[in-house]
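Model it.
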Amino acid sequence: MFIAHHREWFYGWKEAIASYFSLFTQVEGGRGFFLTNVPFPIPMPFLFGREEYKVLGDNVVLFKPREWRGLDGSSLQAMSVENQAKSINSLEKGSVTHLYLTSDGDNSIDSFYQLAKQLDNHVVIVNTDTLTDLALQRG
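Modeled.
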């Protein structure tokens, strides 16, 4: 399994998918890429629409940016722990997604521990390999 975090300027994604990510579909084994748009707040609807990830070929998963950058509640990326838990708990059962927690706001590992305590029983926290495998299984 190969897992990577990949940043790209918002106007470079189509070329990166065509000329870079598509190369990995020719290599055996699963590949997961967690994408981050630069600058951060610009959405990527041209690639994902409402989906949380995109599968290329049958072995590459591109995960939509889902940053949790702070706790002040001023944006979707800066939700309180309680609102982030509500957001995750309200996802359709069987959803496959991730959360990229950063410390450039006022988040810390304690934010994650507080969040984990507020997740419903149907929410399962997994590692990146398992997450990529689940996305590939779901298609």
